[in-house]
Amino acid sequence: MTIGAQVKGCYSAIKSVEASLQLLTAKTNEQEQQIKLTEAERMITEIKNDLRHQVIQLSKEEPQYQ
Amino acid sequence: MPEWINIIIRSLSLLIILFFMTKWLGKKQLSQLNVFEYITGIVLGGIVAIHTIDPTSNIIYALLSMFIWFIVPFAVEYMSLKSKRFRDLAEGRSTVFIQDGKIMEDNLKKEGYSTDDLLGKLRDNGVFLASDVEFAVLEPSGSLNVLPKKENRPLTAKDLGLKLAPEKEPQTIIMDGEVLLEPLANLALNMNWLETELDKQKVSIENVFLAQADNNGQLYLDLYDDKISVPQPTEKALLLANMKKCQADLELFALATENKQSKALYERNSKKLKHAIELIQPYL
């Protein structure tokens, strides 16, 4: 497995984490918990964006594995 | 009127009166009966017993005496609620048996407790060594309450400095196969949600004996059919595991890459993810 594929795997895992967090935030009715979950979700979204750039960059570097 | 009808009427009416009187005297009596309340209960019962089996006695006398035995304890209770001094007189005060780890012999003697009694009471509280106790007090109800020394107390999350998520009481939303709407509404959930959750676990509502939900919207089920195993909710555990895996992956990428810019990016994100994990771990 190339690094590109690994990073892509991590990227999709992060996306799934983000979705789970959104689900939990929607389900809970505890204010404090909601705040914490939203905060975590925001961080995960930032990570996700960074990783997306990385995935694009890597796919440019490793065109032979496309 | 034949006597047996008389007895039936007396019994029923006295029974109903007794029922309401005990209701009004409150639940407190059951939990911590002091001698006075104990006697009151017995006398009330005795009055009823005498007047139900004796058709010649005057029922007015029964009602009168029951009223007296009801109204006096009721008044005492009411006044104890209002005044601390009266309460001390009526219900007694607590007596300190052990203070600062030292046994108060005078107080023991005053309450008529022998050393064996004290040790027995301490053992009731799970303390076998008198020197483990910081403070012990005999309540007016006769029970001994013990505060062990700090190092002998059970460890709590506070001692460990752990931060825990506040937890609300779970609500029972299905009982004997019937949906209870009020608890469902308390959790701000509705029938649609319940149906979806049950669909997800592939169980029909008729098969559910008991279902409880916590305030995170996790549903815990018990079915009539015990052969079907219900999966416990694993959503949160999965989420945490996923986050940890991603974090480990990012660290790995940071180590593997030689590109300085990417390395910095991976490291930064790994740290961020770690922070996020710490932030929400108490809730998962």
From TrEMBL, chain A:
Q: Which residues form a coiled coil?
A: 14-50
Q: Which domain of life is it from?
A: Bacteria
Keyword list (alphabetical) reads: Coiled coil
Task: List the protein's name.
Answer: DUF1657 domain-containing protein
The protein's organism comes out as: Virgibacillus chiguensis
UniProtKB/TrEMBL annotation, chain B:
Reading the lineage from the top rank, the first entry is: Bacteria
UniProt keyword annotations, A-Z: Cell membrane, Membrane, Transmembrane, Transmembrane helix
Short name of any one Pfam family annotated for the protein: DUF1657
- Per UniProt, residues of the YetF-like N-terminal transmembrane domain are 6-78
Which residue ranges does the record assign to the YetF C-terminal domain? 82-213
Cellular component, GO annotation: plasma membrane
- Where is this protein found? Cell membrane
Q: How does it sit in the membrane?
A: Multi-pass membrane protein
Q: Does the keyword Transmembrane helix apply?
A: yes
Q: Where are the membrane-spanning stretches?
A: 6-26, 35-53, 59-79
Q: Has the keyword Electron transport been applied to this entry?
A: no
The family classification in the record reads: Belongs to the UPF0702 family.
Protein name, as recorded: Uncharacterized membrane protein YcaP, DUF421 family
